[in-house]
Amino acid sequence: PFVLEARGVIKIFGQSRALDGVNFGLRRGEVHALLGENGAGKSTLIKILTGAYQPDGGEVLLDGAPVHFADPLHAQSHGIGTVYQEVNLLPNRSVAENLFLGRQPTRFGFVRRSLIEKNARELLLRYGLDIDVQAELGTYSVAVQQIVAIARAVELSGKVLVLDEPTASLDKLEVEKLFEVVTQLKQRGMAIVFITHFLDQVFAISDRVTILRNGRLIGTEPLSGLSRTDVVRMMLGKDITFAPA
Ligand code: ADP
Ligand code: MG
Ligand code: MG
User: Fold this and answer.
1) Which ranges carry the ABC transporter domain (predicted)?
2) Of the residues 41, 149, 187, 214, which has the fewest C-beta atoms closer than 10 A?
3) Domain 4-85+158-236 annotated CATH 3.40.50.1970
4) Beta-bridge partners for 142
5) What ipTM was assigned to the predicted interfaces of this complex?
């Protein structure tokens, strides 16, 4: 029973196949790492699953039924939120505005600013952030901004959360903080896709991994059955020798 699934997905750019018949299935309450070398097709697969690209073959299924997402907003309306490496929010607007911007207006046509701010504070406290929501978002660290972006994506969508290299510019403590949030969401039943180049982080947080190489699916496995060497071998298609410590 997959929440979101790709079946035999093909994506062609010019002469090259970025994805060549890829299967991918995401379950409720799991953190599913998507791994592969640069150019393997990870972002392309995610973009197809979230409506940013249309597949040239194969299909996407939502709760078991074929679905065509016209664009990311359409996917979002079906419960699928995405957070990218670069924070895609507005640094010059307040934290509260960033959280609630672009939402349906109420039937009164407006929402009181004080109510938005109260809601924003309560929401962020649930993510462990005790901050001034009237301050401009850009005055906070990238880590805080990423958690605001996640809170926004979860509140807007709520079923699937895609994290495409969210930790690229975070320090160790900030990564831990982010992982606390991710763990909490997973326990609430969210299905989470996690893309990163850091194997340590994959082993710290993921339940399953899917590995792509040159646009092809190499495998999907529970992480508990894999060693680091296994993962690297699957990613590269060969063994590499680590220099002795
Ligand atoms: P990854 O995220 O694993 O690094 P991508 O999905 O970004 O890989 O890229 C997979 C392949 O598709 C690469 O060869 C890349 O150059 C190509 N590609 C991705 N997006 C485009 C695009 N918009 N136009 C042309 N080629 C693209
Ligand atoms: Mg890349
Ligand atoms: Mg990528």
Assistant:
1) 4-239
2) 187
3) no
4) none
5) 0.96
